[in-house]
Amino acid sequence: MGKQGVIMVNTGNGKGKTTAAFGQALRAAGHGFPVCVIQFIKGKWQTGEARAAAECSELIELHVRGTGFTWAAEDRDEVKKAALQGWKLARTKIESGRYGLVVLDEFTYLLNYGIIAEKEALDVLRARPAGVNVVITGRAAGPGLLALADIVTEMREIKHGYGSGVKAGKGVEF
Ligand code: ATP
Ligand code: MG
Question: Which residues have CB under 8 Å from 99's CB, separation 6+?
Answer without folding.
Answer: 33, 34, 35, 36, 93, 132
